[in-house]
Amino acid sequence: MTLKNPATEYTIHMMVWMALYAGLLIGAILYIKANHPTGPLLYGLAVLPALPIGGTIFTALRFLDRVDEYFRLLLSKRFIVATGLTLFICTAIGFVENFAELEIMPLYLVYALFWACYGVTCAFIRTVK
Could you list the residue ranges that cross the membrane (predicted)? Predict the structure, then answer.
């Protein structure tokens, strides 16, 4: 689907990918709880909800390609800072979990953490200086 407005296309595609994510996650959880699969089927079902995340990444990259140069630079700067924050936080959590023998955050939350960091960067990175 190609729309004239990149923001509209981005929003629609993200909604589709997130709906697919939610559907696959709920379906996998219900199937696993009801049928208790093992082996490759269990691993396949466990990975299934992560596949739409690739679609959201592709959608974000496509959006970057379709906006003007100024906005592309602003978004890129925000993405880089959000990625750095995510790496920093995950590394710190990893060391705390390792040294203190705690479980603080499951790895599947890293993607959500990235978008939270991205939201924070949007509040502070307003220009491309």
Answer: 12-34, 40-63, 75-96, 108-128
Whole-prediction pTM value? 0.87
What DSSP character marks residue 127? S
CA distance 90 to 114: 10
Is residue 63 a contact partner of residue 71, using CB atoms and an 8 Å limit? Answer: no
Do 55 and 33 have their domain in common?
yes
Q: Domain count of the chain?
A: 2
SS3 3: coil
Same domain, 52 and 113: no
Quote helix, strand, coil % in the chain, to nearest 5: 85, 0, 15
E strand or H helix that includes residue 83? helix 69-100
